[in-house]
Design goal:
about 500 residues, 17 helices, alpha/beta, three-stranded mixed sheet, Rossmann fold, 12 strands, 2 domains, disordered N terminus, seven-stranded mixed sheet, extended
Length: about 500
């Protein structure tokens, strides 16, 4: 070993190798030392940012969205508004100032009416174009408790119709945008913001009491049909007062905006679908709505179809912000949602204060439905006798409500043959086999096997001819009617089959 060591310095190559090893060891130790020092410094910095117990830190101040507050996010004005609103809600605000701000409402509604308004609790579901204007008007008029329910955020396209949003609010939940702006106007107002989608399963929770006070009124400003129907059905069944806004999209004529019973609403796809779904649940009237009677026409805005290239990408449903949520673009003139929202708020204010007002009369067509039902009963009895059955005591599984539903919602109050809207009747579309005509399973009871999807709407004269030639004769509808009538019947009956799932 000693001889090897003594020979090592004489070898130039060996010296180079040893120098390289030594240099590598030194470099490695320097790197490791630097990394250790850096880790220690980083840990020290992290520790320095952790506040002591009881020490306030910016990270402890969370916004209402659940995120850490940005120290530079609030302007001085925002900070003053928040501080003032907090004090005002705690009662530290001069009552005379409030009454002075509400002076015009006070002299219009009287002291008693204004007191009712100020003590009311209103829930607004849907805080977009319609809902934001409704909330703004209710707040400025003196409503003291407002629960806002909406899952959506402000977008750039919201700004053409939203009452309160600004560019700075893009990306902010709509409920908090509204609260923040209106606190600067009426700081004494209490807001309960629920940044979530309304659904049937959440109805009891979202429409619950607030500090022991039941909601005095609910505003429906939803444009999602499932949520809309769920809200209206729940309120109707629970006896909660509610007013609903129908569709403001594609509308432009302010002289055709009305407040009336839902049974009177017309010329609006959202209204028709809502009314039809509710009627399938046995709710045909008793809900006030804001709607437009404006008809579409050439040159007017229409619901835009989804571009073909979007269909090619795959499932169209994936394009929605939520499952089954609309993905097509609805043209909206920014002024119309404001009118609908203000009409909704106006109605709520009049209702809460007891100020005199009248609804538009509903269609009041119950007598007509009774006549159509009686004629259908006679038609079924004649058909039974024609097939060789005893027709005395025959019952049909159709009610007056069913008649109204078929005439108004399925066939739009018109004959499928000529489009006439007078002297209407319901009649079977096709002649049934004798075995499918009468149910005789129960002794002493005879009932027709008639289904709603067996019936079409015609005038009485057309129904008489149809019964003679199709139901009792040998003709098929295809031999009697032109292709357009056949297409319309198939379309209406297929539509009704799709709606059967909502019948309860």
């Amino acid at each position: 070993m000693s001889s090897w060591i003594s020979r090592t310095p004489s070898s130039h190559n060996a010296q180079l190798a040893m120098t390289a090893v030594a240099s590598g060891a030194v470099a490695a130790s320097l790197v490791l030392g630097y990394q250790a020092a850096r880790r220690k410094n980083n840990v020290a910095q992290v520790k320095s940012h952790i506040p002591e117990i009881g020490q306030e830190h910016v990270a402890t101040r969370l916004t209402e969205y659940g995120a850490a507050a940005d120290a530079n996010n609030l302007s001085k004005e925002d900070e003053r508004s928040i501080a003032l609103a907090t004090r005002a809600r705690n009662g530290d605000y001069d009552e005379e100032l409030i009454l002075e701000q509400l002076a015009r409402n006070r002299v219009f509604l009287t002291d008693d009416g204004l007191a009712k308004l100020r003590n009311s609790f209103v829930i607004v579901v849907g805080c977009g174009g319609v809902g934001s204007h409704a909330v703004a008007a209710l707040t400025r008029s003196g409503v003291s408790k407002l629960r806002l329910v909406d899952f959506d955020q402000v977008t750039l396209s919201s700004l053409n119709r939203h009452a309160l949003a600004t560019l700075a609010d893009v990306g902010t939940p709509k409920v908090h945008c509204i609260r923040r702006r209106l606190e600067q106007v009426c700081p004494w107002t209490h807001f309960d913001c629920r940044n979530e989608l309304f659904s049937e399963s959440d109805a009891t929770r979202l429409l619950a009491d607030w500090d022991g006070q039941k909601p005095d009124y609910v505003v429906d400003a939803i444009d999602n049909i499932d949520s809309k129907v769920a809200l209206l059905a729940y309120c109707h069944k629970q006896g909660i007062k509610v007013v609903s806004s129908m569709g403001a999209g594609c509308k432009s004529d302010p002289t055709r905006v009305f407040v009336g019973d839902i049974s009177a609403s017309a010329e609006d796809a959202l209204s028709r679908s809502t009314r039809r779904r509710l009627r399938a649940q046995g709710i045909k009237d008793g809900i006030p709505v804001v709607f437009s009677t404006e008809k579409t026409a050439p040159g007017k805005a229409q619901l835009l179809p989804l571009p073909e290239d979007e269909f090619k990408k795959g499932s169209v449903g994936d394009l929605g912000v939520l499952p089954d949520f609309r993905v097509r673009i609805l043209p909206v003139l920014g002024t119309m949602p404001a009118m609908f929202g203000l009409c909704v708020a106006n109605h709520v204010i009049l209702e809460l204060t007891g100020y005199p007002h009248d609804y538009l009369p509903s269609k009041a067509r119950d007598k007509m439905y009774d006549g159509i039902l009686a004629a259908l009963q006679g038609s079924e009895e004649r058909l039974a006798r024609h097939a060789g059955f005893e027709a005395v005591g025959l019952k049909i599984p159709v009610t007056q409500d069913d008649v109204g539903y078929l005439v108004e919602e399925v066939f739009r109050g018109r004959s499928v043959v000529t489009g006439l809207a007078t002297r209407l009747a319901l009649v079977r579309w096709r002649a049934p086999p004798a075995a499918d005509l009468i149910d005789t399973r129960f002794e002493g009871q005879k009932s027709s096997k008639l289904r709603l999807t067996d019936l079409v709407c015609m005038t009485k004269e057309e129904a008489t001819k149809h019964e003679k030639e199709v139901l009792k004769g040998n003709k098929r509808p295809e031999e009697l009617y032109d292709p357009e009538v056949l297409r319309l019947v198939d379309e209406r009956l297929a539509e009704e089959k799709a709606f059967e799932v909502y019948r309860k």
